[in-house]
Automatic annotation (TrEMBL):
Its EC number is 4.2.1.136, 5.1.99.6. Residues 226-494 form the YjeF C-terminal domain. K(+) binds at residues 60, 125, 162. Homotetramer. GO terms for biological process: metabolite repair; nicotinamide nucleotide metabolic process. The keyword Transferase applies. It comes from Quisquiliibacterium transsilvanicum. This is Bifunctional NAD(P)H-hydrate repair enzyme. InterPro entries: Carbohydrate_kinase_pred_CS, CARKD, Nnr, Ribokinase-like, YjeF_N_dom, YjeF_N_dom_sf.
Amino acid sequence: MSALFRTATIRALERECIDRLGGGVLMERAAEAVAEAAARSARRLPRATPIVALVGPGNNGGDALLAVSKLRERGFPAHALALSGTEPSAADARAVWHRWHARGGAVGALDGLPAWLERRPLVLDGLFGIGLGRALEGAAAQAVRLLDQAPQCETIAIDVPSGVDADTGAIVGGPDAPAIRADLTVTMIGDKPGLHTGAALDHAGAVLVAGLGLAHETAADGELFGRALAMKLLRPRARDSHKGSFGSVLVVGGAAGTAGAALLAARGAQAAGAGKVFVAAPDGPVFDPGQPQLMTRGFEAGHEGIDAICIGCGLGRSAKAGDALERALRSALPLVLDADALNLVADDPALARQLATRAAPTVLTPHPLEAARLLGVSSREIQSDRIGHALALAAQTGATALIKGAGSVMALPDGCFSILAAGSPALATAGTGDVLAGVIAALLAQRMPAADAARLGAWAHGSAGELWQRSHPSGAGLSAAELPALVTSALAPA
Ligand SMILES: NC(=O)C1=CN([C@@H]2O[C@H](COP(=O)(O)OP(=O)(O)OC[C@H]3O[C@@H](n4cnc5c(N)ncnc54)[C@H](O)[C@@H]3O)[C@@H](O)[C@H]2O)[C@@H](O)CC1
Ligand SMILES: Nc1ncnc2c1ncn2[C@@H]1O[C@H](COP(=O)(O)OP(=O)(O)O)[C@@H](O)[C@H]1O
Ligand SMILES: [K+]
């Protein structure tokens, strides 16, 4: 499944369903999905592993308490610990709470958690879901701290790991605020963007979507772009093809001291299938002795015979660099703007205006700090809402904007967004972004529309990182020069 739903859409779908079926039905189905997932986990764990549900004050807590009831009916030793001893405020949860007590069910207090943790329970996190309005505090924050000290306990988050914003993937209250770290998140009605980008990637674990019987794909707000969608964009090469069939990429960058950045972009372009690759560097030709097929071009030689330009990797911010960017923006060729090209645009309103009025396909590939410079905010603000800022950047520039980093986000000026479901912290090393810029330029040169080139390129790049990490589990030590070959493997049809 690839559809992503914002909280507001989930709420609307929920209301529509409750009007049709009456209250309680969805909670019944949600609790069943949680109980099913918990039962599966419990069967893998040592016999008699207790199941402990953390029950919050809203309907998320209602899901948790009803799941406990269902697990007990199936013979599992499931227990509930409530954040508050009083009845829940949410109506469906209140009904579950009263039914549970009417049958003689017990609910412990959350401060009993330390004693349970000594027995290595399976933990169900039902503290807060999509109704979280502020940072976790008090007993909820303390429960997160205790669970952080007990990483051996498996945790299943209900709907959203408590503390994570389901729309943005940021931790509510900032990166240092408490949030549950789950092994699995069972998310209700539809998948949420905030489970797949930024800080959330260290909190959500695997994501299981429980649709609860609501058909709603048409209401999706965004897309999770993974292998299945990537494979649909791959086209077999015609037998009767030649190097001219796959486009020529011009990489503009590689000033003295950072020549390698342009060469990495050139290798990336080569790896993603470009027919020919040229490098134009401001301080004289740069060569890649290991890649003798790469050609050089004079820095001011123009764009003849070129099908796509990749500009900015190691370019510097000299007047010469600015002129080259001005020429590239003026050309009618598909363009990737990375690194210093983005910094030059951020510093020069005339270049920014030129970018905004450009008609040819244009992809911007900022990391969060570059995105921050372009939008006039801090990188912390970017990370607090990666999707919102990617959309703002696309709207401001009229270009396809890819904000990189864990859970890269691609946004289009028309308001569509995709989260890339591929990536690895192995990629957090200098030069990997240069490779990506070249990869996307090669796909543009092969006539792929900007949105497809950005998504496929970023997915292949993220998958290349994952491939490398398979044989290097610590994730440390990847050199960017190793990436292009892995990108080629990732781009092979399954
Ligand atoms: N209504 C329904 O039929 C369904 C609801 N579902 C569940 O219900 C959840 C949403 O329920 P709610 O809207 O009740 O929201 P939550 O269960 O997320 O909790 C919201 C409650 O917590 C309070 N609150 C928010 N942040 C707090 C904080 N930091 N500290 C203390 N209190 C805080 C709010 O004032 C509100 O009372 C979903 O995530 C999902 O788990 C699912 O069962 C699907 C069906
Ligand atoms: N923790 C991470 N998880 C996934 N991808 C990452 C992570 N850290 C970095 N990356 C990826 O590595 C690349 C780094 O690019 P960038 O910051 O521009 O580096 P450079 O300019 O040195 O090439 C981006 O594609 C980014 O998405
Ligand atoms: K939760």
